[in-house]
Design brief:
heterotrimer, A alpha+beta, B alpha+beta, C alpha+beta, B: alpha+beta, Glutamine Phosphoribosylpyrophosphate, subunit 1, domain 1, five-stranded antiparallel sheet, 32% strand, C: 7 helices, Proteasome_suB-type (chain C), Pept_T1A_subB (chain C), cytoplasm (chain C), threonine-type endopeptidase activity (chain C), threonine protease (chain C)
C-alpha cells in the first residue's frame, strides 16, 4: 500500500463504498435531527401549542391581568389576531391561560360550571382564593393526561386584596405578587422581578410604591418588550383590571402586528 | 440538558454613545452542580475589543486560544490593531470552518473601532453574525436578557447610564437563570479607558 | 356504540350525566380514578415527551429542592429539643427558576409537617390527601394520629401509583406519643424512619454539613443554626436549590415556624465570619 492516509489499509475500497451507501441509506431513513422527541410526537400527539403569553400583577386592592391576542400555530402561522386568552369568570376572578387552546376551553368550562354550581348552592360568588384551590385540584385530576396549559388566576380575595395565583400544568399552586405564563414568560418575569420585586437594587434604595397606574404602565412595557423579541406574542394587549369594590374593566391596546 | 447549557453562563453587551458595555456571570457548573464561581466569560482581545464566549466552557477555552492566535497573526501581518468588525468576521470564519463539527460555544464581540464607534455582535455556533445597534445576549440567560434589555436600552447612553443599564439587566437575568449567577463582572469600554467592575449577586 | 343514531335520547342523557359527574362535582376520594391516556400509550414516556426535558420552558413541571430534617435532644434544661425541619424555596423548570418563594414545609395537622421534594404538584396534592385523612382519623378515633400511621398512609397512597411517573420525596416529621419522629416517604413506595435525613437535588451537600456538625444533644440555637447552614451550603453548590431558607422547629409542645432567611445573605455572613474574601478580582 502507498502512504495514502484516511482509509484504513485493510479496507477494501468496494466494501467501503458499499458501507458508505448503507450508511447514507440509514441516515436518510432516520436523519439525526429526528430526535426521540420528534419521533414520539409523530406517533401520537394530542396537544398543540397556540403560543402567546399572559402576565398578572396584584397590588393592595387591585389585580391586573394582561395578555396578547395573537393565536399562532407552530409559532409561524397566525390563526387569529383577536384570540381571547383572558376569561373573566365572575366579578372577582379572572383566569388567564396560555398553551393548548382546546384544553383552555375545556378548563374554562369546568371552572365556569363549578362556579355556577357554587352560586346555586351558596347564593354567593366564589372568591378568588377558593377558586384558586379548585383550579389547582382540577389541574391535578388530570395528572396522567394533563391539560397543556400554563394557567394563572387573578382577582380579589376574601379580604379585598389583590391576588395572583400561578400554576404549572399539573396544578402546583402558589400565590405571588406578580406572575407570567406562556411563550414570553422568560422575558416578562425578569423585568417584573426588577421593577416590582426590586431584586436588583440595594436594600436601602427608595422603592416606588406599586400603584394601579404604575402596574398598568409596567405591564404595557413588559408586553412591548416581549412583542419585539417573541414571535408568537403580538397584535394587541388585552388588559383586564379588577379593583376591589369596582366592576372589572377591560381594555385593548395596540401592539406590534408583525 | 443540552451541551450548550452544561456549564452554564451568560454574556450580554450593550452599545451606547462612544462606549460599549460587556458583562458576564461568574459561574462554571457541571449541570446542576456549581464547580467554580470565579470564571468570567469575557476576555480581552485588544485594547478596546472584548470577546465573550458562552456555552460549553471547554470549547470556549479552545476557541479563545484560536481567536487570540488569529488576532495576533493579523496584527503582526497588518501591523495595526484589530477592529471589532474585523475580529467578528475572523471569528465567524473560524466558526464556519468547523461547520460539521462545531464548537459548542456562541461568541460575542463588543468594542470600539478606530473612530470610537461602538460595535457589538453575536453569532451562533457556526458563525452567523448578527450585529444590531442596541444590544446582544448569548448563553443560558439569553431570553431573560433580551426581555429586560428591551426595556432598559435607550439611544445614545453615556458610559454611566450604560453601565447601570447593563448591570441591572444582567442582575435581573441571573435572578431567574439557575445555570448562571454567583456574581457578575461588567466591562465598560470608553474611548479613554476600560472600566472593570465586579457586581455582587445572589449566591444560590 | 354501534347502531346508535344521532337523535338517540338515551346516549345524550347518559353523556350529560357523565359530564355532570366529571365537572359539576368534586370527585369522592374513595372511588376516584385519574383520567388516563388511551390504551397503548405509555404514561411515563408520554409525559416525558411533552412535559420533560425537551418541553417548552413553562410546560415543564416544577421541581428541584433541598430539604432536611433531624431529631435532637436538648443539651441544657433551658432548651426544648425536638425536630428541626429546614428547606429551601426554589422551584425550577429545567434551568428556569419558576419561583423563588415556594413554601416547602406543608402542614399535616397541628403537630406534623411534610416536606416537599420532587414534583411540586404531586407533593402538594398528596400531602393534602394525607392531611385530610389525618383530620378524619382524629375525629373518628378521638386521638391524634401517630407520625408512623400518617406516613404509612402516605406511602401506601403513593405505592398505588407506582410506575405511573409520580415524583415525590417527602419527609413526614412530627411529635406524637412515641416522641419525635421523621419518616422519609418516596414515590417508589419506600418509607423509613430516620434521625437525620435530607432529600432533594442538593441533599448530598446538606448531608455533608449535617454529618459533620450533627450531635444527638444540641442547644436549640445550635440546632437551628445547623439547619440553616446545611441548607445554605446546599443552595450554594446546587443550582436547583435557592431562595430563602424556611425553618420549622417542632418541640414537644408546639410547632414554631421561623421567619424565612435569605440564603444569599447567609452566605455573605458566613464568608464574613470566615474572613474569606469572596469578592471576585478580575485579573487583567
Amino acid at each position: 500500500m502507498s502512504n495514502f492516509t484516511g482509509i484504513t489499509a485493510t479496507m477494501n475500497p468496494l466494501a467501503e463504498m458499499a458501507q458508505f451507501k448503507q450508511n447514507m441509506r440509514e441516515v436518510a431513513a432516520s436523519p439525526e435531527w429526528r430526535t426521540s422527541k420528534l419521533i414520539e410526537r409523530q406517533r401520537w400527539n394530542p396537544y398543540s401549542m397556540e403560543g402567546g403569553s399572559t402576565a398578572a400583577i396584584s397590588g393592595d386592592n387591585f389585580a391586573i391581568v394582561a395578555s396578547d391576542t395573537r393565536m399562532t400555530q407552530n409559532d409561524i402561522n397566525i390563526l387569529t389576531r383577536d384570540a381571547e386568552k383572558i376569561h373573566v369568570l365572575n366579578d372577582s376572578i379572572i383566569l388567564s391561560t396560555s398553551g393548548f387552546y382546546g384544553d383552555v376551553i375545556q378548563l374554562r368550562k369546568v371552572l365556569q360550571s363549578r362556579l355556577h354550581k357554587y352560586r346555586f348552592d351558596y347564593r354567593a360568588d366564589m372568591s378568588a382564593d377558593l377558586c384558586a384551590e379548585l383550579l389547582s385540584r382540577n389541574l391535578y385530576y388530570r395528572r396522567f393526561f394533563p391539560y397543556y396549559t400554563g394557567a394563572m388566576l387573578a382577582g380579589i380575595d376574601e379580604n379585598g386584596k389583590g391576588a395572583v395565583f400561578s400554576y404549572d400544568p399539573i396544578g402546583c399552586i402558589e400565590r405571588l405578587g406578580y406572575s407570567a405564563s406562556g411563550a414570553a414568560e422568560p422575558m416578562i418575569i425578569p423585568f417584573l422581578d426588577c421593577q416590582i420585586g426590586h431584586v436588583t437594587v440595594a436594600e436601602d434604595y427608595e422603592k416606588p410604591p406599586l400603584t394601579i397606574e404604575r402596574a398598568i404602565s409596567l405591564m404595557k412595557d413588559a408586553f412591548r418588550g416581549a412583542a419585539e423579541r417573541e414571535i408568537s406574542t403580538g397584535d394587541k394587549i388585552h388588559l383586564v383590571i379588577a379593583e376591589a369594590g369596582k366592576p372589572i374593566v377591560q381594555k385593548f391596546l395596540p401592539l406590534r402586528e408583525d | 440538558m443540552s451541551i450548550m447549557s452544561y456549564t452554564g453562563g451568560t454574556v450580554v453587551a450593550m452599545a451606547g454613545d462612544e462606549c460599549v458595555c460587556i458583562a458576564s456571570d461568574l459561574r462554571i457548573g457541571e449541570q446542576m452542580t456549581t464547580i467554580a464561581t470565579d470564571e468570567k466569560k469575557v476576555h480581552k482581545v485588544s485594547d478596546k475589543v472584548y470577546v465573550g464566549l458562552a456555552g460549553f466552557q471547554s470549547d470556549a477555552k479552545t476557541m479563545l486560544e484560536k481567536i487570540l492566535f488569529r488576532k495576533n497573526l493579523y496584527e503582526l501581518r497588518e501591523n495595526r490593531k484589530v477592529r471589532p468588525q474585523i475580529l467578528s468576521e475572523m471569528i465567524s470564519n473560524l466558526c464556519y470552518q468547523h461547520r460539521f463539527g462545531s464548537y459548542f460555544t456562541e461568541p460575542l464581540v463588543a468594542g470600539l473601532d478606530d473612530q470610537n464607534k461602538p460595535y457589538i455582535c453575536c453569532m451562533d455556533t457556526i458563525g452567523c453574525v448578527s450585529a444590531p445597534r442596541d444590544f446582544v445576549a448569548i448563553g443560558t440567560g439569553q431570553e431573560y436578557l433580551l426581555g429586560v434589555c428591551e426595556n432598559f436600552w435607550q439611544e445614545n447612553m453615556k458610559p454611566e447610564e450604560l453601565f447601570e443599564a447593563t448591570a441591572q439587566s444582567i442582575l435581573s437575568c441571573l435572578e431567574r437563570d439557575a445555570a448562571s449567577g454567583w456574581g457578575a463582572v461588567v466591562y465598560t469600554i470608553t474611548k479613554d479607558k476600560v472600566n472593570v467592575s465586579t457586581i455582587k449577586s445572589r449566591m444560590d | 356504540m354501534w347502531g346508535e343514531t344521532f337523535d338517540d335520547f338515551e346516549s345524550e342523557e347518559r353523556e350529560l350525566a357523565v359530564a355532570k359527574q366529571n365537572f359539576m362535582h368534586e370527585p369522592a376520594n374513595m372511588n376516584f380514578t385519574f383520567p388516563s391516556l388511551p390504551l397503548g400509550i405509555q404514561p411515563v414516556e408520554f409525559m416525558n415527551s411533552h412535559f420533560g426535558a425537551t418541553a417548552a420552558k413553562n410546560m415543564k413541571f416544577r421541581k428541584g429542592t433541598t430539604t432536611l430534617a433531624f431529631v435532637y435532644e436538648p443539651a441544657t434544661p433551658a432548651d426544648k429539643g425536638g425536630i428541626i425541619v429546614a428547606v429551601d424555596s426554589r422551584a425550577s423548570s429545567g434551568e428556569y427558576i419558576s419561583s423563588k418563594s415556594v413554601m416547602k414545609i406543608l402542614d399535616i395537622g397541628d403537630r406534623m409537617v411534610a416536606t416537599m421534594a420532587g414534583g411540586a404538584a404531586d407533593c402538594q396534592y398528596w400531602t393534602r390527601i394525607v392531611a385530610k385523612y389525618c383530620t378524619l382519623y382524629e375525629l373518628r378515633e378521638k386521638t391524634p394520629i401517630t407520625v408512623s400511621a400518617a406516613s404509612k398512609y402516605f406511602a401506601n397512597a403513593l405505592f398505588g401509583y407506582r410506575g405511573k411517573g409520580l415524583s415525590v420525596g417527602s419527609m413526614v416529621a412530627g411529635y406524637d406519643k412515641k416522641g419525635p419522629q421523621i419518616f422519609k416517604v418516596d414515590s417508589d413506595g419506600d418509607r423509613c424512619s430516620l434521625k437525620v435525613c435530607s432529600v432533594g437535588s442538593g441533599s448530598l451537600n446538606a448531608y455533608g454539613i449535617l454529618d459533620n456538625h450533627y450531635k444527638p444533644k444540641m442547644t436549640d440555637e445550635e440546632a437551628r443554626k445547623l439547619g440553616l447552614r446545611a441548607i445554605m451550603h446546599a443552595t450554594f453548590r446546587d443550582s436547583g436549590s435557592g431562595g430563602v431558607c424556611n425553618l420549622c422547629h417542632i418541640t414537644p409542645t408546639e410547632k414554631i415556624r421561623l421567619p424565612p432567611m435569605d440564603v444569599s445573605k447567609l452566605w455573605y455572613e458566613f464568608a464574613d465570619e470566615l474572613g474569606r474574601d469572596i469578592v471576585y478580582d478580575p485579573r487583567e
